[in-house]
Amino acid sequence: MKKRFSEKRKISSERCRLIEELYAPARRNFPRRRVIVREYDNLWQTNIIEMRPYSCHHCILIVIDVLSKYAVPLKSKGGSETTNAIAEIIRASGRCPKNLKRMGKEFYNAVQKILKKHDVNHYSTYSTLKASVVEWFNRTLKNDMGDSVRVSKYKTIFEKGYTPNWITEVFTIIKIQRTNSVTYLFENYRGKSVGAFYEYELHRATHPDVYLMEKVLRRKGDKVYVKGLGFDGSHNS
Fold it and tell me: Which superkingdom is the protein from (predicted)?
């Protein structure tokens, strides 16, 4: 009985420390690398924004050469429609970027085929600012269309304070890049590279082996199949 109580107390203590780790203060504003291009088509930044209140086309594909801009209406954010829109931009303009920057599922499926066809280097930064130039265009566009669709990707002063400042998934540093500012390359527990982060976006994990369970999906004897808090369905175990 004492042993079982001791084990429960230990688990409870670990959970408390993990919660403290997830809710530790997170710095939002810090120096970042500049976006520098020396010629047309050196860097395209892309994004898809949703304009649900408006009829017919609910999405807009934004393509910015940083020096020039394209905005194409889409009926959905699907990979095939996004691919066709990008292909039409390349065909109509007669130009093709050396690099394309974006983080989104629609850019990691069918779009990859056309990027490989034109030998385009596709990368993501996984920062809250993402494609900074195109994000500024999105903000301008949305403000012009109406303030009701303004959204923040991270916690604002109006957002409830009981949501975590840090994600539950733990990553491993695989490389430190001596950029200005310094960035760190990561991989997840499956060995997959997930992009680069600034130092101020990092928080040391003191309990990397402790995970929070969101819900039990099914039981079989003394075994359970669960979904981890903060993980998608592909991580269920």
Answer: Eukaryota
* DSSP, res 46: E
Q: Are 210 and 18 in contact, with CB atoms under 8 Å apart?
A: yes
Q: Is the dihedral of CA 153, 156, 160, 165 positive or negative?
A: positive
> In whole angstroms, what is the distance from residue 73 CA to residue 48 CA?
9
CA–CA separation, 123 vs 108, rounded Å? 10
DSSP state of 107: G
Q: Which domains does the chain have, with CATH numbers?
A: 43-142 (3.30.420.10), 146-206 (2.30.30), 210-236 (no CATH)
Ramachandran class of 41: left when φ > 0, alpha when ψ lies in -120 to 50, beta otherwise: left
141-190 pLDDT, tens digit per residue, is 554 343 322 222 344 444 555 566 777 777 787 777 767 777 777 777 78
Q: What are the tokens at 235?
A: 């991580």
Q: What are phi and psi of 92, to 5 degrees?
A: -70, -35
